[in-house]
Design goal:
The chain is elongated. The chain has 145 residues and is mainly alpha-helical. The protein has helices at 2-44, 50-60, 63-76, 80-97, 104-125, 135-141. The protein is built from six helices and no strands.
């Protein structure tokens, strides 16, 4: 019986060593994957990468929550394109608040929707074109963003 216990103990020790080795390999793989992800994130949100500002610019157009996320993303790696569209979409959102006024609200809402579409198209194209009538005003009013 003691020999069976000894064989069982040897098998358990061997299984433990195999599991330990497998865990070390898995940890190395995870560490390597994390490093690659870190490098990808740095590249994606690098201020010198034009696509980084484009991502922030497009995200700023997607609801108010997207605008808040865009501000957070832009604060760590400021890009001129990202900041431009954060200011512009804030202005569009603020004008959109006026759409709650009866009768006038329909026109204001339609105007904001057109401004939003034009701004989003420009953001997707990566160009900094102020929206008509109010775009330059937004850039001046919200310089701090």
């Amino acid at each position: 019986m003691s020999e069976e216990n000894k064989d069982l103990g040897d098998k358990a020790e061997e299984a433990f060593d195999n599991a330990k080795e497998a865990a070390k390999e898995a940890a190395e793989d995870v560490k390597e994957a994390a490093q690659e992800f870190k490098e990808d994130v740095k590249e994606a949100f690098d201020a010198n990468n034009p696509e980084s500002g484009k991502t922030v610019a497009i995200l700023a157009h997607i609801t108010f929550l997207g605008w808040i996320i865009a501000i957070i993303m832009n604060s760590s790696n400021k890009t001129e394109l990202g900041s431009f569209y954060i200011r512009q979409t804030l202005g569009i959102f603020l004008i959109g608040i006026l759409s709650v006024i009866p009768l006038l609200g329909i026109l204001v809402g339609l105007f904001c929707f057109v401004l939003w579409i034009v701004s989003l198209i420009n953001a997707i194209n990566g160009s900094q074109k102020p929206i008509f009538l109010v775009g330059d005003l937004f850039q001046n009013w919200f310089k701090g963003l």
